[in-house]
UniProtKB/TrEMBL annotation:
<comment type="similarity">
    <text>Belongs to the LysR transcriptional regulatory family.</text>
</comment>
<keyword id="KW-0238">DNA-binding</keyword>
<dbReference type="InterPro" id="IPR058163">
    <property type="entry name" value="LysR-type_TF_proteobact-type"/>
</dbReference>
<keyword id="KW-0804">Transcription</keyword>
<keyword id="KW-0805">Transcription regulation</keyword>
<dbReference type="InterPro" id="IPR036388">
    <property type="entry name" value="WH-like_DNA-bd_sf"/>
</dbReference>
<feature type="domain" description="HTH lysR-type">
    <location>
        <begin position="2"/>
        <end position="59"/>
    </location>
</feature>
<dbReference type="Pfam" id="PF00126">
    <property type="entry name" value="HTH_1"/>
</dbReference>
<dbReference type="InterPro" id="IPR005119">
    <property type="entry name" value="LysR_subst-bd"/>
</dbReference>
<dbReference type="GO" id="GO:0003700">
    <property type="term" value="F:DNA-binding transcription factor activity"/>
</dbReference>
<keyword id="KW-0678">Repressor</keyword>
<protein>
    <submittedName>
        <fullName>LysR family transcriptional regulator</fullName>
    </submittedName>
</protein>
<dbReference type="GO" id="GO:0043565">
    <property type="term" value="F:sequence-specific DNA binding"/>
</dbReference>
<dbReference type="GO" id="GO:0006351">
    <property type="term" value="P:DNA-templated transcription"/>
</dbReference>
<dbReference type="Pfam" id="PF03466">
    <property type="entry name" value="LysR_substrate"/>
</dbReference>
<dbReference type="InterPro" id="IPR000847">
    <property type="entry name" value="LysR_HTH_N"/>
</dbReference>
<dbReference type="InterPro" id="IPR036390">
    <property type="entry name" value="WH_DNA-bd_sf"/>
</dbReference>
Amino acid sequence: MLNLARLAMFAAVVDTGSFTAAAEALGQTKAVVSFNIKQLESELGVSLLVRSTRRLSLTDAGERFYPRCQRLLQDAEYLLDDVRRDHHGLSGILRITSTPEYGAQVVVPALAAFAQLHPRLRIQHVSSSYHADLISERFDVAIRLGQLADSNHHAALIDNFAILPVAAPAYLAQWPIASLPQLAQAAWLAHSRLPSPLSWQVLTPERQAVLFKVEDDARLMADSATALLTFALQGAGVALLPEWLVRPVIANGQLCHLLPDHQFPVQSIYALYPNTRHVPEKVRGFIDFLRARIATAE
């Protein structure tokens, strides 16, 4: 039978890159960590790590074993959390990642409210535009926006939102936009992480789906909606942004919603969580809480 403590030491060595750093992170001596890794390799009958004076690397067997080790550790953590919950309510650590913009507006306030309901639960939120790997980076939930790519993870639909083409009044004073052809000829501000940021299926007022394609390359590109919003506010061109992000600046006149009788594809908000045999109550609880909170606010 595998020893979970040894699995945790192996994962720590891989995560930190050395026996010394792993020992410090775990509060153990280097000798204890090294002994347990050797015992783990003996139990498995394979070498997991290649040791040298300069570097530490995984063997082929180690490469295959590492993600499975992480899943086992995560399953064990989830099981312990749920056993404790039966007596004390939700506890343990809930690690969540989201984009900076949606995180600040929706996820973080929801986490603050969720923490009030579960005082024994420790919550860690990581704000990043980078799509982290849930298993290797030990996230319980990732909030993803837009079209969901194929994934080995479970995905729970949280909500849907519109995306709107917007521009500043100063830009429109020089280059008015009253039709799709004019919109296609505009100076566009594009999201660099989208596979096709300048091509969309658009629904016309007559309810016809047409392929909309910007004629020129984007004038400016950025990897965050906040940067695109700032570019648009400065009059740099047209950006296609989430309605929940631009609603306030449209209301106060800083940006104009272009061609409001045309509809760009509705986007979705998903909660992704690892595809494990046992979904912990803290994950299910937060997803249900977030979905209900958003539905109540609408």
